[in-house]
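Q: Given only this backbone (419 positions), what sequence would you predict?
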């Protein structure tokens, strides 16, 4: 049996990096007041038709849909913003800004390639209930901090795509310009359903055409222009680097005003977006609620991990080497309380309940890329000592075996000191 095309198992040792990324996301996002939400992977198909848009590629070409056993039309979520808005509209969040983050699998039936999968994972943040450009700026600032903490070089591109008041005039002028130009077959269709998408077509011919197209920023109404200028002004104040990108539009239909992407040229090719987001002030209306302004972002986890330096956030491994089977029972309380102690520290304890000779232990520790080793043989145990070895510097020191608590904290102290 094989895993489905475009999907993969995330298993050790790779899963360690996932664990680390999620841990960091949780701690950074919650320090900015975003709390975790977990929503179902399956939703009514209608939710995405009405939010992401039935003409968008994501819904019309890529969404996994099926009828369940009672005949309901179900979709595997292609994204999570619509679900979070559904949560907001069905809960009682009035009178406060609902700031939430999530992570989990999304599904899009695309042609798989590097950085593009059919089951992929996103982390995301949504702030619902605030109009102000300060909330857009805070979100962008937070993401900038987050990518820096991960050691990922991410470039920010930003644009405003206007609102239902100013966009129609632009669309009209864009269509009349495009109708005289030669476009790729996809854009010939997009021009009718979603002409803004022509602006970010990756086909060379379309890109040339687009260079001469009317520019959206000249059409923004006063409200959209003020919002955008204020946002750029706040980002300047915060010293966040960005590139204004006149042609940045997004593939999902719910956006108004601010749109932005973090990209990395190192990702290469057409999948250079680490993530994207923007304002969706009209989405609540599309889903049958009152108008509630909102802004959010989602990043691709696989793409982020591809850009993370290998050693960022990898925990230290402490390998326990017992040279004699008789020591297993004697050392067991120390080994297990070291593990219990390590749970929120920056190290992991690994051992086997077996003894080997030191050469074999060193081979095993090497394979695990362990940083530290504790060696315990008959001789050491008799003298109430164990050996603490730094595997990177090869330096060895004795640690007294005392009562459980003292010994464990002495070993931990040395790990922290040597890390
Ligand atoms: P999106 O641009 O469709 O936005 O997806 C966000 C990110 O998910 C992309 O930039 C990319 O890193 C990753 N991604 C998308 N499709 C794939 C794929 N097939 N394989 C691997 N990675 C992929 C959204 O989904 C919006 N919900 C973002 C948002 C949140 N807007 C407001 N709030």
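A: Predicted residues:
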């Amino acid at each position: 049996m094989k895993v489905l095309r475009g999907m993969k198992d995330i298993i050790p040792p790779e899963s360690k990096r996932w664990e680390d990324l999620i841990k960091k996301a949780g701690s950074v996002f919650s320090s900015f007041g975003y709390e975790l939400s977990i929503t179902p992977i399956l939703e009514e198909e209608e939710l995405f038709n009405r939010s992401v848009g039935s003409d968008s590629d994501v819904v019309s070409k890529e969404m996994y849909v099926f009828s369940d056993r009672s005949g309901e039309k179900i979709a595997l979520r292609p994204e999570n913003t619509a679900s979070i808005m559904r949560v907001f509209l069905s809960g009682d969040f009035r009178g406060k800004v609902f700031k939430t983050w999530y992570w989990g699998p999304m599904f899009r039936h695309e042609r798989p390639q590097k950085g593009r999968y059919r089951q992929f994972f996103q982390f995301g943040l949504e702030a619902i209930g605030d109009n102000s450009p300060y909330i857009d700026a805070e979100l962008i600032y937070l993401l900038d901090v987050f990518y820096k903490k991960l050691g990922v070089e991410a470039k920010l591109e930003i644009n405003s795509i206007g609102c239902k008041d100013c966009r129609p005039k632009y669309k009209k002028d864009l269509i009349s310009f495009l109708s005289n130009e030669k476009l790729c077959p996809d854009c010939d269709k997009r021009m009718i359903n979603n002409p803004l998408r022509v602006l970010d077509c990756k086909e060379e011919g379309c890109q040339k055409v687009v260079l001469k197209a009317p520019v959206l920023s000249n059409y923004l109404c006063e409200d959209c222009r003020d919002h955008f200028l204020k946002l750029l002004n706040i980002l300047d104040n915060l010293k966040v680097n960005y590139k204004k990108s006149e042609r940045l539009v997004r593939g999902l239909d719910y956006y108004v005003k601010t749109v932005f992407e973090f990209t990395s040229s190192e990702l290469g090719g057409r999948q250079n977006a680490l993530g994207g987001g923007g304002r969706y002030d009209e989405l609540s209306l599309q889903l049958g609620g009152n108008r509630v302004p909102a802004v959010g972002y989602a990043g691709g986890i696989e793409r982020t991990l591809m850009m993370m330096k290998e050693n960022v956030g990898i925990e230290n491994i402490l390998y326990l080497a017992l040279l004699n089977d008789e020591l297993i029972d004697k050392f067991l309380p120390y080994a297990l309380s070291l593990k219990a102690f390590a749970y929120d520290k920056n190290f992991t304890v690994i051992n086997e309940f077996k003894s080997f000779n030191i050469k074999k232990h060193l081979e095993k520790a090497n394979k695990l890329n362990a940083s530290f080793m504790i060696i315990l043989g008959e001789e050491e145990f008799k003298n109430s000592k164990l050996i603490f070895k730094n595997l990177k510097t090869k330096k060895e020191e004795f640690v007294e075996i005392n009562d459980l608590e003292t010994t464990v904290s002495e070993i931990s102290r040395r790990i922290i000191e040597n890390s």
